[in-house]
Write a structure and sequence with these properties.
Blueprint: H1 31-39, E1 46-47, H2 64-70, E2 80-81, H3 88-98, H4 213-217, H5 221-232, E3 236-242, E4 245-249, H6 250-260, E5 271-275, H7 279-288, E6 292-298, H8 302-310, E7 325-331, E8 352-359, E9 366-374, E10 380-387, H9 392-400, E11 403-409, H10 415-424, E12 429-433, H11 442-451, H12 454-457, H13 462-465, H14 483-498, H15 502-506, E13 511-513, H16 538-547, H17 559-564, H18 578-582, H19 588-599, H20 605-619, H21 624-633, H22 638-648, H23 651-656, H24 667-696, H25 703-709, H26 722-729, H27 734-740, H28 751-778, E14 784-786, E15 794-798, E16 808-813, E17 816-820, H29 822-843, H30 845-854, H31 857-880, E18 890-891, E19 899-904, E20 921-925, H32 947-963, E21 971-974, E22 979-983, H33 996-1010, E23 1015-1019
Parallel strand pairs: 1-2, 3-6, 8-11, 10-13, 11-12, 18-21, 22-23
Antiparallel strand pairs: 3-4, 4-5, 6-7, 8-9, 9-10, 14-15, 15-17, 16-17, 19-20, 19-21
Length: 1029
């Protein structure tokens, strides 16, 4: 049984691909008609009536002028009835001429007076359309390869997936190919980038495509726009705006049909689309699956286009007659910001964009410059460091700040680094940039910052200032030792600039120098306990190099250790990890900080004790914990919301960003979302002050806890935000703002708005007085005002009344004439001016309010930081009070390292077994805390006896202890551990040519090179990779 086909709607670029094409006129039942149907392709079933039926068009503003110009139409899906008086011979000639070209524009203008239009479904209906019939029901073969682009059976290429291959949509077509499959210039054998470099060449740029000019000249104006944008962004999925809808074409449509579960629209080319309001839903789906998406908006209406053409000095060409469109955003996993266009917020974890610059020719070893940023937070981490042969520092960075997108310099990465990136970041999106032009050097980076006015608008952040040479007055030279760091920063800036979010991120002015955790060692004699120890002794120098730490020193946990001990799981599940076990955080920003604390525990005993005291005080106040957690759980992601509001209030963005020129049809919806986010932020910040008030009635002993919940005016760290918060809460009516999607300033908040309201009120009073005066003048009480918009305030007077000469007739109705007078015209002009002033003020009210709010960024950010630390402390207190056997570990600095754990339990296993089933274990290393003590413990036992569990348990307890938490043991004391090494399990890396034995030897070599007397080394059955003789 045949299903009804759906023919493409009017508000699409379907009309731009083909010349005028009217449905074939055939009389039912004729022999010629049946013969033609046997030879022709399947068509929509049609019947004919005496006159064509025009389907009522929805009142949607679209590129109607373009449609009329190009002369294309669409018909409503289903059965459309039509009749014609044309003869069979005439219709046959018309059909042949119509089928002669289905893609390129015809040189002859054809009549489209009898064409039938179709309207899209209501905008609220964003569900996929029904599947087309007949010629679209043959599935295409789908395959993928590890190459950058896929060669299908028809040798067509599609956008790249995260793994480097291609996800091919199952195209449905009558002959197995779409029109773009026949284009030679996109086939792998012929495809070139804009520099004319052939695909497969090491210097080929996969982001661009060379489109022949002859091909472009034959296209319709709008389709030429699409190909021009696509040629600059060949690695992205274009969401091309046409009226109220986003359209996808060719290879992009194939991906959309597969990933978004929408269907193709009828035609000879791949074509799909959806309403504007569904953008957030569909764009997030593609981004999560590793695609880059580009949003192309109309920046002109058809009327604006006509006005532009009229002002042109020269004769307009064919390609001038199309509304302007601009690329407004380019988003991927690593460049995603949460704005009013996006749908639901992404995952809670940070999504880092990382750029790596390597100095291969360094004499002292491999040097790296790195820059990484979570674009939802906006803090640049920039640094430069030297690494060993095993790239241990780079491995640790990738484990701690697992990126979702990596930027590399083409041709400037060693084989070993390339292997590491491929191995550790197999699921990350990778982008290679050309040296110099895209991957900027340090000088080019600093020059860009100067040209963009960054140094004029902001006080240079101290961490960035130290990277700029003081000897260069222009500020365009890097300081020694930061050349690679600034170059990697430049690569990040280029990527953000391409995504059109560079200015909004830079304006936050958030920078932090990245220093590897094992590079922060300093000498601090005050941390040493004991008498008779001379700083000049050799033993003291060796041990103190790693044992005595600054307050910022952290324990080093590299990627191998994090994996072997199941501390975190960067794959996303996190099941069975230590992070999952202790994660009781109530807020998203607190959960992110908890992960940072867990992967980089403290080494400073004083800092550890501060955290322990705070956790202990919270544990001892069980009545307080539920109240705090209840408030914390009600908080939104304040950290991300704050950045979003500050960015939306940017005056630079509002003036220069293409979004400021975009023609949007869901403006009220977007405004409601902005206001909803702003109100959510205000309410969240208000609740943070409630936490301070909650603790104000408590007697606290913990220094850390006191600082977090005490106002700065009272020598604490929490900023006093009450006055500023009250100002923004009272600046507008919240209820009206939610309902209307606009902010109406309350009296006294905006002087210009108040003046415009007063002017409108005054004019309206004068109009009423004038009406009363005219009734009295003409001695008629039936005179009233009539009209709306431009025709309002016409005096409607009975036709029998004699009017003065200054009355000018404008319109009439039965028994009444309508007049205007010089006075009414003058008053109406004043009223219009006042209303325009009011609307102008209201249009900028949201941005102005957000901009004013952003001026207090440091205050809001300070409050959020205090709450995030408190949330982590509450999380650790919840974990510490949830087990039967828990203790406060004693961490004491000592020249001779030691470890003493009594009745220790595995933190993750004790939640699975009952207390009686899990046997606790003791671990004692150097119990005498003296030189020459027992520094090694050998564990033996049968298989499945728990040897590996004991080793992992020891490492996890040490991590928890130095993190500041309680540990699952009856007692625990230790000296600070500067690094944990693990060699557990046996596995090879066959894809990288590394056998099991090679992996064991490499990891053991890493331990021998970097371990110190204060390192904890866990070796499990070393040598199992060697086959017995």
């Amino acid at each position: 049984m045949k299903r009804k086909e759906r023919v493409p709607p009017k508000q699409t670029l379907f009309t731009y691909f083909k010349p005028i094409q009217t449905p074939p006129y055939k009389e039912k039942g004729s022999r010629d008609d049946r013969k033609d149907q046997e030879n022709e392709e399947p068509k929509i079933k049609m019947e004919f009536e005496t006159t064509p039926t025009r389907i009522k068009q929805q009142p949607v503003e679209t590129d109607s002028d373009e449609d009329d110009m190009i002369g294309r139409t669409k018909t409503l899906s289903g059965r459309i009835k039509r009749k014609s008086s044309m003869s069979v011979e005439e219709r046959s000639k018309v059909n042949k001429r119509k089928r002669s070209s289905r893609f390129l524009e015809s040189d002859e203008e054809e009549d489209n007076s009898s064409l039938i239009e179709e309207a899209w479904p209501e905008a609220d209906d964003v569900t996929p359309m029904k599947q087309p019939k007949a010629q679209f029901l043959t599935p295409r073969s789908c395959s993928s390869t590890p190459k950058v682009l896929l060669t299908t059976p028809t040798n067509n290429s599609l956008p790249v997936t995260p793994s480097g291959g291609v996800s091919v949509g199952c195209g449905l077509d009558k002959i197995g190919t779409f029109l773009h499959d026949t284009l030679d210039f996109i086939k792998d054998a012929n495809r070139r980038d804009k520099n004319k470099v052939l695909f497969g060449d090491p210097n080929h740029n996969p982001r661009t495509l060379l489109v022949p000019q002859l091909f472009l000249n034959k296209l319709t104006p709008a389709m030429r726009q699409w190909w021009n944008i696509k040629s600059d962004n060949y690695d992205t999925i274009l969401f091309f705006k046409v009226g109220k809808f986003y359209e996808l074409y060719h290879m992009d449509a194939e991906v959309a049909v597969k990933e978004l579960k929408i269907v193709f629209m009828k035609g000879d080319f791949a074509h799909a689309g959806f309403p504007e309001k569904a953008f957030g839903k569909y764009s997030q789906t593609l981004i999560q699956r590793g695609y880059r998406i580009a949003r192309v908006e109309q920046t002109e209406t058809p009327q604006m286009m006509e006005n532009r053409i009229k002002k042109m000095a020269s004769t307009p060409m064919k390609f001038d007659r199309v509304v302007s469109r601009e690329l407004c955003s380019l988003v991927s996993k690593g460049s995603r910001t949460i704005g009013f266009f996006e749908g639901e917020e992404p995952e809670t974890d940070s999504a880092y964009l990382l750029s790596i610059k390597e100095n291969i020719g360094s004499c002292s070893g491999t040097q790296f410059g790195v820059c990484f940023i979570d674009t939802c937070i906006g803090t640049f981490h920039v640094g430069q460091f030297e690494d060993d042969r095993q790239l241990s520092r780079l491995r640790t960075l990738l484990a701690h700040y697992h990126p979702v997108e990596v930027i590399l310099e083409r041709g400037n990465l060693s084989y070993r680094t390339s292997q590491l990136v491929s191995q550790v970041l197999s699921t990350a999106l990778k982008d290679t940039l050309s040296p110099g032009s895209e991957f900027w050097d340090a000088t080019r980076t600093l020059k860009y910052l100067i040209e963009e006015g960054y140094f004029e608008q902001n006080t240079v952040h101290p961490d960035l200032q130290k990277m700029i040479s003081d000897e260069d007055s222009l500020g365009m030279s890097p300081s020694p030792g930061y050349e690679l760091a600034l170059s990697s920063f430049g690569a990040c800036l280029w990527t953000l600039k391409r995504s059109l979010i560079d200015k909004e991120i830079l304006q936050l002015n958030q920078f932090q120098e990245f220093v590897p955790v094992d590079q922060l060692l300093v000498f601090d004699e005050s941390l040493v306990s004991g008498e008779g120890v001379s700083p000049d002794s050799a033993s003291f120098n060796v041990s103190m190099t790693t044992c005595t730490q600054s307050p910022n020193q952290k324990m080093v946990l590299d990627g191998i250790t994090l994996y072997n001990l199941d501390v975190i799981d960067n794959s996303g599940s996190g099941i069975g990890t230590l992070l999952q076990r202790i994660d009781n955080a109530s807020t998203s920003f607190g959960r992110r900080l908890l992960k940072v604390w867990l992967t980089a525990p403290l080494c400073n005993p004083a800092g550890i004790r501060e955290r322990q005291e705070a956790v202990t005080e919270l544990v001892n106040k069980p009545h307080l914990l539920p109240e705090i957690r209840e408030i914390l759980k009600s908080l939104p992601d304040l950290e991300r919301l704050l950045r979003r509001i500050v960015v939306l209030g940017s005056k630079v963005r509002s003036e220069s960003h293409p979004d400021s020129r975009a023609i949007l049809y869901e403006t009220i919806t977007y405004n409601k979302k902005k206001i909803k986010d702003f109100l959510s932020l205000l309410e969240g910040l208000d609740k943070t002050t409630q936490i301070v008030e909650l603790f104000s009635s408590q007697s606290l002993a913990s220094k850390l806890l006191i600082n977090l919940v005490t106002l700065q005016t009272e020598q604490g760290q929490f900023p006093d935000i009450k006055d500023q918060l009250q100002y923004f809460k009272a600046a507008f009516d919240h209820k009206i703002a939610k309902e209307r999607g606009s902010i109406i300033p309350l009296p006294g908040v905006n002087e210009e708005y108040d003046q415009s309201l007063e002017e409108i009120r005054q004019v309206e009073e004068e109009l009423e007085q004038y009406l009363l005066k005219q009734r009295k003048r003409l001695n008629c009480k039936n005179i009233s005002y009539f009209g709306t918009g431009r025709n309002r305030y016409q005096l409607e007077v009975p036709a029998t009344v004699q009017v003065p000469d200054d009355y000018e007739i404008k319109s009439q109705r039965k028994g009444f004439l309508r007049y205007v007078t010089p006075e009414t015209e003058e008053l109406k002009a004043r009223l219009t001016t006042g209303e325009e002033t009011k609307e102008t003020v209201l249009q900028g009210t949201v941005r102005d309010l957000f901009h004013s709010f952003g001026e207090y960024f440091s205050l809001w950010d300070g409050a959020i930081n205090c709450v995030s630390v408190l949330d982590v402390l509450v999380s650790m207190a919840t974990y510490s009070s949830g087990e039967e056997v828990m203790c406060v570990p004693q961490v004491t600095a000592s020249e001779f390292p030691y470890l003493d754990i009594k009745d220790g339990r595995h933190p993750c296993v004790i939640q699975t077994f009952t207390g009686g089933e899990f046997i606790p274990n003791d671990i004692v290393i150097n119990p005498d805390r003296a030189a020459g003590g027992k520094m090694c413990t050998l564990v033996t036992g049968p298989n499945m006896g728990g040897k590996s569990t004991l080793m992992r348990q020891t490492g996890l307890i040490v991590i928890l202890a130095q993190m500041g938490s309680y540990v699952p043991a009856s007692s625990c004391s230790l000296s600070p551990v500067d690094r944990i090494f693990t060699r557990l399990g046996a596995s090879d890396r066959i894809m990288y040519g590394e056998s099991t034995f090679y992996v064991e030897v490499s990891e053991t070599n890493l331990i021998l090179q970097h371990s110190t007397p204060h390192s904890l080394v866990l070796l499990d059955e070393l040598g199992t990779g060697v086959a017995p003789v």
